[in-house]
Fold these 4 entries.
Entry 1:
Amino acid sequence: MTFLEIERKKMTLEFWSEILPWRNDPRVRIWSKTNRVVSYQEHLAWFQQRSTKLDNEPIFAYFANSTFIGMVRLDQVAKNSLEVSLIINPEYRGRGFGARILNDVCKYFVAMKSAEMKLTAVIHSENLASLALFSSSGFTKVTEQLPFVFLELNTF
């Protein structure tokens, strides 16, 4: 397998529009907090509202050879906590891009965070692939409120 460099860019409305089919994929929705189908209008309206906070709560588009392969969102869920959300283009799942993208955003977070800021994730307890991915990137379980597991990045 050829090793492709990944590139991180700030999310734009154009790229956000491309994510909707990924987000509405039944294999993604089953693990989501909101597992219903999201309409195009709702999807765009959410981004337009959320884009006012991109300086403090970035959303990144990831590319390999100019192909849009993934998205990461960092949402402020508490005064001292950002929650990471990750989605991979269905055509590029299972190729190791999830780990590379998650590791990149963790490095970004560590470089930009203040000492008291935490990076967290909420994963469906039966989503073993995501639990393994986040664990391999340095996240550990903090608590569980079924059906979700709450994780935190160990930054030592």
Entry 2:
Amino acid sequence: MESLSAAHDLERLFDVSLDLLCIAGLDGYFKRVNPAFVRTLGYPAEELLARPFFDFIHPDDVDRSRRAMEALFRGDEVRMFEVRHVCRDGSARWLQWSTHPALDEGLLYAAARDVTERRLLTEAQGALRRVATSVAEGRSSTEVFHVVAEEIERLMGSDSGGLVRYDMDGTASVVASHTRPALEGFPVGMRIPLDAQTLAGTVRRTEEPAWVTDVGSQHPGVERARAMGIRSAVGAPIFVDGRLWGMIAAAWTTSPPALADLAHRIAEFAELVGTAIANAHSRAELTASRARVVATSDETRRRIERDLHDGTQQRLVSLALGLRAAEEKVPPELPELRADLDRLAGGLADAVEELQEISRGIHPAILSRGGLGPALRTLARRAALPVEMDLQVDRKLPERVEVATYYVVSEAIANAAKHARATVLKVHVAADDTVVRLDVHDDGVGGADPARGSGLVGLRDRVEAVGGTMILESGAGRGTSLAAIIPLGGG
């Protein structure tokens, strides 16, 4: 009686378990499945028992599943094995299996837990992290948009993912698209009409997620989709700073099930994408603002240098020449007057020399006239410590790049001379077709800290304002190294 009661209890547990329970044979067929199995996959128990269990595994996961079966056939237990199963409605669910083989009985005893939501959350977080990383790395909006499109396709398991922006002229334009290799895709810049027959138009009008299951309109964007074999798509609005900015969309060449659920998933991602786009815009605006400030500052420096050189400096030189001429006319019987004029002329010459130094510090004229190479060599000759200069720049570079490079080297030389107690400074500057690479190293005491006002403050802003990056390493007793990469284009 006790054994009958225990068997009855096991039957009840088998039937009421929320986890999927089954008994399978080594012949590849289920022998028994519990109600949770039927509810999760949607197939009647009779069909589950009549077909090989590999029929219910997602095609992309079959090879992994066969390797797991090989381990079971050897008598090994397989635990925490996650695999996708295809439901009756065509959707896929992630199941986490723990299986015990009973080879002497020719059976496999298995329990599975539906971990689909956890997997989807993890995938969404991973997608968002990759988008956020692209923003944090300072990539352009175009590059960020491409990452978003790629992540949409991956996250939704679709044949195509895209990002569409709503324009002021009543249309929309594709700003990013990513498709599976076999598909041609939507070209960036393609215009899409915003009417009731297009997904973009529906999302624009309702400001809600939407989906289409039959692509039948003759509009250009839809004709393109039909040519690609697209049959269904979902889209969700993107809001940036509270304003409807555009939409993200995923499309399939088949008719995937549960489009409403997919629309909900893409809508959640759209909220996160809106934040990423806002951050990318803010970063781009900040970079542009810094570039404008630096450009204005450099132009002001050039103007002051020209005014000093062509105006004040020339006038002082003329006055000095006039004093020398007056000195020559002083009669011999007035030696004191001659001495006073000589002293004044000498002081005026010193003032002109000091003014020239100030003028060079404001904006080096040699940089404008001769380019980066001569300007850096002049810096090295005038330095208060030996400078080993390795220049691999054989052409004129964009002015903003030359100015940024010059001031980085100039500040590094000044710091090494004033603070580092260095005996030598090594400077390496090389330019290729895309960037200038700059490395400066001294053998001084190290410990340079921009926060202490060493003169390095603002250099990083100047470099980043032209789209570059700068790294400073200055360990105590190990000297100071400064490396910068400045792109020749953009910024």
Entry 3:
Amino acid sequence: MARPTGQETLPPILFPGANSTERRRLAGLKAAGRIRSAGPRLYVSVPRAETAATLRRAWSTIVARLFPDALITHRTALEFMPSPRGEVFITGAAHREVRYPGLVLKFIRGPGPLPDDPKFLTLRSSSLPRALLENLTTRASARSRVLPIEQLEARLEQILHTSGEAELGTIRDRAREIAEELGWGTAYRALDTLIGTLLGTRHGKVASAIGIARAAGEPFDPPCLERCQLLFAELRRPLPAIVDTFTAADHFRNKAFFEAYFSNYIEGTTFEVAEAEAIVFDKQIPAARPKDAHDVLGTFELVSDLSEMRRTPPTFEAFVEVLRARHATMMARRPEAVPGEFKTMPNRAGDTVFLHPDYVRGSLRKGWELSRDLPPGLARAIFLAFLVSDVHPFVDGNGRMSRIVSSSELLAAGQSTIIIPTIFRDDYLQALRALTRRHRPAPFVQAMIRAQKFSHLEFSPYPRILAELTRRNWFREPDDARIVE
């Protein structure tokens, strides 16, 4: 239905005219082939191939215009969009269907609006307590009108997470009143058991992963798990394995120094190399910056301890204890960072809000379990580095901790550790954001592979490696130069 030049632009959907003038106009447009009937009391001006998608998008406008007294119920009252089968559920005086291309309005005989059923456009929709009851029907014939139980559990868990137990209690109390008024006792008992199970006061069955985790007292963040699963899939392909074959006595110690230096530099704890040398090797703590100096020194004490760094925990609980112990060492002089303890308040960096404390242990567990199915070495190092960074379990020091976890996995596998020098900082952070914000794992994997490759150097003797890193622009800002590989 291409529109010739000069013709008026028509809306994608049109309704029957309210008077004879409007009806004649529609008849003329239909005769000219500019509109066509899409079903009862509805016309469209879009191509046939676009009709179904257009009507699905406009479902609420169609219902409000053609059925202004409708009560939106069941799964539609929770999703406010057509079901995957294009169905919109409406409670009315009788069972019937009104069909359009890609859209089915399904009227269900049932009770009308209750006083607290809120307005939706010019319509009404079931309140949350009522909609939850409607979606807990046990009749097989009604299954298409209800959300899968896993999605209901996820919604209740999110309410519990964001609004607390009191809000769930309020919902349950109102649902009880509605059930008594409408005779929906079976649905209420199902809802009461489900809420009690999520709160840990009942021992009912839950079907969703997040519901099971919440009932066990260890909920996780589904978006975090989704990102981890994307990265896991990317890491299942073969990756290079760069073995660290350098054996000079001071190679490991010198590399640990530069790892501690650059890992802190990324986080904003900046010193000149000579200052960092005096802090680490001579224990000269500058009076003006004692905490910053101890950040570098604490990181060095960890990454230079070969027996500690080769320790990879065999269980999740051991993994948590290792994380906490290493954090306690690294942040020992930062009491405001609560060394060795997971955060109890949400934290953020700029416009990025990290996981809520409720989800820390559960998300770490889900990620750690995934990591067991990755080969030791670079794949696990990349995965666990991202996991710790994404979960952000501590008040401070999370970026450094993520890189320490990565080094530990690499050392345990006999592979070269990864250093992120200043010159590579922006590449590293942008690759990390590609995964956290845009769900693209490949850039982060490629950045870490590249970093391991250029980090594979002999760090002995010290004067030679310092000159070599300077030549390779490791100490330069990203805007000033390019890394020499």
Entry 4:
Amino acid sequence: MTAPLAPPPSRTRPRVVIVGGGFGGLSAALSLKRAPVRITLVDRTNHHVFQPLLYQVAIAMLSPGEVAAPIRQILARQENAEVMMAEVAGLDLDTRRLRLADSPIPLDYDFLVLATGAAPSYFGHDEFEGWAPSLKSIADATAVRARILAAFENAERTRDPAQRGRLLTFVLVGAGPTGVEMAGAIAELRRFTLPHEFRHIDPRTARVLLLDAGSRVLPSFSEVLSRKVHDRLQRMGVEVRVGARVERVDQEGVIVNGEPIASSTVIWTAGVKPSPVAQWLGAPTDAAGRVRVERDLTVPRHHEVFVIGDAAALVQDGRPLPGVAQVAIQTGRHAARVIAARVAGRPAPGPFRYRDLGNLAVIGRNYAILESGRVRLAGFVAWIIWAAIHINNLTLFSDRLLVLVQWAWTYLTRQHGARLIVRPAGGAGPPTAPPT
């Protein structure tokens, strides 16, 4: 006999609406588990994505289900929380109501937490997006995976040397953590995983180019570690070009500092911009468009509204906080503490203070870098720390176990087990098929 469902929470409890099921929104919801509130978490998808490992879906090391978890499953045992799959179209601050894109019925709130994250920024060249996809969602990652794998498949079919060279040239624009990790992963894919699987091409001849307009890779790390990563990538066969300004991206490839580079696979890892939260709020923003919040993460003149994570302009010790998962997680927890204190009639906690737990980036097999305060590591030990932290921070235990097993298998065999090209039903052929 099925156990009866728990009764809904009392309608006298304040309603906390959280928009966004990423690191910040989920952290806020979980932190309010014991608070006497009703929580409604709204997201346009039904899953939470562990974005630091999204690139491993794109290079076919992990499957989408291993880096994403259903939001309902995560909150299933939290009786004061419900999940709504919907897209927010705007809000009315005076009436405290959210407008939903697919419903005429607004969503009322007593407290509102906006954790809407960031979108890729093409720096005024949105026309690049059609030719250079980014990595912000599961859909993005699976599309990039199909594009990378199809490039090798199509190169196997063509007999035109120029076309084959274009297909086997992979360009990544942006040398931040995602670009660096992706470049190293593609370099290892072509060198170790694919060489014995093709008969007419040698995947090891594929070119991997990492481009950045700045003066060095990984500018958020120290120059010492940046140089180590630069050298490591070059030893792996990645062509690293700094001071490289991308002027055009189209079906033929890219133009960099006036030089055309023929490529069928261009991946955008260069930058992000905040979601349209500031437009909804009509609030002041910084130069990047992030909402300027008070020290308790609330919006000026509307202290029932919190903006957290990538959507908030946060400055500490004179420096803006980075758009990383730990900032989102810690701001989500702090917003929850403020709300819980207000509901209970307790004094509010002090102003938000970010605790820097360090930066990590991985560059292929056995090599990562770690920077935390004065501690700087590069190599195998940093790689073990990187792996342990990422597995530990996956939301579901089942995902931790699956990722651990998959990484162990890949480490021992160098095989990527998720090399599937998936296209919509009725598709005419593999993506980026060469002209016949």
